[in-house]
Amino acid sequence: MQDRINQPHDMFIVEMLSNEEVTRELIAKHVPQEITQHLDLDNLEAKSESYTDELNRVFTDIVIKLHLKDRPEREAEIYILIEHKSRPEKFARLQILKYKLRKWLEAFKATETPQYLPIIISMVFTHGERKWYYSPDFADLFDCPSDYFRQFIPNFRHLLHDLNDLDKEQLKEQTLLNVAQLAMKFFHSNELKNHLGDIYNPLALIKDPEKQKLFTILVTLYLMSDETHVDMEDILEVITNFDQKEDIVQTVTKKIRAEERAISLREGEQKGKLEAARTMLLNFASSKFEYVPVGFSQKIHAIEDIDVLHSLSHSLPRAESLEAFESLVDKATKPTTH
């Protein structure tokens, strides 16, 4: 069950910050007043945007589309990008630059000669066990021999919202934003059980039954991750007065079981693909070299990476002997050292 919820933090923050009430409070409280005084926070649109990097890893950002107060008649000219990180990352600034460029190119394609490009303000939202210790300035990624070189380097910085910097006073307000922040701040902590009341009490105040149920399920699924120190019994103690308690528990239980079944199916499919790739490689090797010793077969069966098996299958026709191919197998499966 260790992989029951994949990337629980990403899933949780995307769901929470896609809610405009939560996002509005985040901007109002954690974006500098020099910026917010120009923004129409009553009319914003929050949505998630996913993209795939060069390594086929999927990332999801929250993008808030806003209007400037003195230009309400125009299309949105400002975006706030929220980049979620579970740990300090030096090159988060490079990811942010890629997003900005992608958005600006979209604006250029939409209008061949735009008068101005949209303003994009970026924020790194982090809740890692370590405080964020990297500079927010993009130019600091470069080692310039003198300040003269800096005029040739993109010059921007990101805002930083690090939950490690939030004290108990800041988290006392019973708002949906603080529900999310408390859950994420204490997710890995032994103190999480002590804060369950602080997390769930604001949810009890939600008057809309469907909204209350939705957010309670979302928070409970997050806190029920195998990475935390709480279980359903702990949560039941703090939601005893919720009108929809039984429905919430049943829904959470069904979702967890469904996720477990889906992971089990994926694991079964992956095992089947691995075994098929191993068998195919051994059959090809047997056909080419007529004889494959037991030791070599054991090496192939020990390979757990399907990409390595596919790569070896492509290399096999060029191998002049079994010994040469076994050398390729040893090289491909040798642990990397740093």
Quick synopsis:
This protein is α/β, with parallel strands linked by helices and 338 residues long. It has 12 helices and 5 strands.
Quick tags:
47% helix; alpha/beta; 338 residues; disordered N terminus; five-stranded mixed β-sheet
Written description of the protein model:
The protein is globular. It is 47% helix and 13% strand. Helix 5 packs antiparallel against helix 6. Among the domains are: 158 residues, no CATH class; 74 residues, no CATH class. By secondary structure, the chain is an alpha/beta fold. The protein contains 12 helices and 5 strands.
What is the average of the pLDDT values? 83
| Strand order in the largest sheet | 1-2-3-4-5
The main sheet comes to: 5 strands, mixed
Unreliable stretches (pLDDT < 50, length at least 5) are 1-6
Q: How many whole angstroms does the radius of gyration measure?
A: 26 Å
Number of helices: 12
Residues in helices, as a percent range: 40-55%
First CA to last CA: what distance?
A: 31 Å
SSE sequence, one letter per element: HHHEEEHEEHHHHHHHH
**Molecular shape:** globular
SS-derived structural category: alpha/beta
Strand content: 5-15%
Number of strand elements:
5
